[in-house]
Write a structure and sequence with these properties.
globular; binds 5-O-phosphono-D-xylulose; TIM Barrel; alpha/beta; about 230 residues; carbohydrate metabolism; Ribul_P_3_epim-like; binds fe (ii) ion; isomerase
């Protein structure tokens, strides 16, 4: 089963609640929530107050992608604000195992995010605490960037590790991809092993002209491409 997670980074922030209602009604599975601190990444976005504000608007899982350093202090705030999934970058945590434990102890699903040049071995000794592995297919900090093609071989390598772990443990870790996902490349990305797809500009960019049917058509087109790949 595939999940589509529109990133609200590209939504109209003046009408955020409506935007979320519309993408979920159009078939979005998760809401991807990008948190940037102007320190770990050169951009500044939204925090727990906004997460709390959108929580009553939707039942869809809120997928919080932390691009902040340090990470531990902010984790309980997001859990209280209603996050369902919290992911962070290993470079931003002094103690990766402890940060993953903090997320899970607060009742959320936990994940590690790999920048394009971050090696996959960071996951090796924490598989039992991972619910999600997120591969960045752009450098973090901005929406609307171009998919880095090298990510496809990295996805295959991550898929192999996740499948080997599942065969041993019976636990299925999700493999999420973030950055430059569009209708014309989502099938190739799925074939490389991703099962959860963040799409910001591809989804919200399509609705910018105010036509409410545009989210339906772009999410429908992403799903049609995934259907060509199969389960
Ligand atoms: O985490 C990030 C960027 O750092 C992403 O979640 C972007 O928001 C994805 O946007 P598109 O590449 O799909 O426009
Ligand atoms: Fe993200």
């Amino acid at each position: 089963m595939y999940r589509i997670a529109p990133s609200i980074l590209s939504a109209d922030f003046a009408r955020l609640g409506e935007e979320i209602t519309r993408v979920v009604a159009s078939g979005a599975d998760w809401i991807h929530f990008d948190v940037m601190d102007n320190h770990y990444v050169p951009n500044l976005t939204i925090g727990p107050l906004v997460c709390e504000a959108i929580r009553p608007v939707t039942q869809a899982p809120i997928d919080v992608h932390l691009m902040v350093k340090p990470v531990d202090r902010i984790i309980p705030d997001f859990a209280r604000a209603g996050a369902d999934v919290i992911t962070f970058h290993p470079e931003a945590s002094e103690h990766i195992d402890r940060s993953l434990g903090l997320i899970r102890d607060s009742g959320c699903r936990a994940g590690l995010v790999f920048n394009p040049a971050t090696p996959l071995h960071y996951m090796d000794h924490v598989m039992d605490k991972l619910d999600v592995v997120l591969l960045m297919s752009v450098n973090p900090g901005f929406g609307g960037q171009k998919f880095i093609p090298e990510t496809l071989s990295k996805l295959r390598a991550a898929r192999d590790r996740i499948d080997a772990y599942a065969a041993k443990s019976g636990r299925r870790i999700l493999l999420e991809i973030d950055g430059g996902v569009k209708v014309d490349n989502i099938a190739e990305i799925a074939r490389a092993g991703a099962d959860t797809f963040v799409a910001g500009s591809a989804v919200f960019g399509a609705g910018r002209d105010g036509d409410p049917n545009r989210y339906d058509s772009v999410i429908g087109a992403l799903r049609a491409e995934l259907a060509r790949v199969g389960a």
